[in-house]
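Subject: Sanity check before I submit

Could someone independently write out the structure tokens for this chain? I want to compare against mine line by line before I put it in a report. The sequence has 278 residues.
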Amino acid sequence: MLKSSGYRAVIEPDRWVPGAYTLVVDGTPQSHVNLDDPTQLFFEYVQRMGIVIDRLGLPGEPITAVHLGAGALTLPRYIEATRPGSRQQVIELESDLVDLVRSALPWSRQASIRLRYGDAREVLTRLPNGLLGAVDLVIVDVFSGARTPAHVTSAEFYQSIVPLLSVDGIVLVNVADGPGLAFARGQSATLGSAVEHVAALAEPNILKGRRFGNVVLVGSRTPLPLDWLPRLLAGGPHPSKILTGRELKDWTAGAPVVTDSTAVASPLPSASVFRTRP
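---
Independent answer below. Compare away.
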């Protein structure tokens, strides 16, 4: 049991992929890691994040990244494998979760990955001054069980990230939502209140609000490096779509910007969303 939340966290071997494991918290699969090949990304939304990360700067070029939410450190491992020498900060509330992952799924000692413990929003205000204006990538993937806490969904929260970003720095946000996508569209509007350029990535049926799933939001103060992204996304292995410009505005239309006074946690998925066959 995790001390802060009281949730049960377990690490289960992937019965289909030797050397791979899934971190499950409160019955929700939160991370998948292949120790033999950290470049293998299993969850579909994480694959989309990886595609965007690959578009940053030059191929293989080290970056500076801040991860809000640790999980099993899937993306920090991916960045270290694909961009050796990257500087990475990982912020996680549950220190005993990291201890579990470190013990069962250790990562390279050579990786420049610094762990910081505490609430993501609060720790953001205590990061070293040297990171101001120097971060190429901020990943927001904060969950308490199956829900994103309200205080990391507001305009004030996103505005606190902006000073960290380099000129071309981007924010990647994992948003889980269900039919109608009121929460996801609100997050798109809210991220857009903090940075000028925003895109949304997901499977077409999810973007149409037909079923519960993950929408990846991408935000930046400068035009996003997404020229080749539609072709990559359409190619699969799980074909998806990217919304930008007018299409994104139409998708977001009518969604209010979320503030600290109006923020709510992301919707709770039904039990069937994560139910697996024995």
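---
OP: Matches mine. For the report I'm noting this point. The two ends are 24 Å apart (CA to CA).
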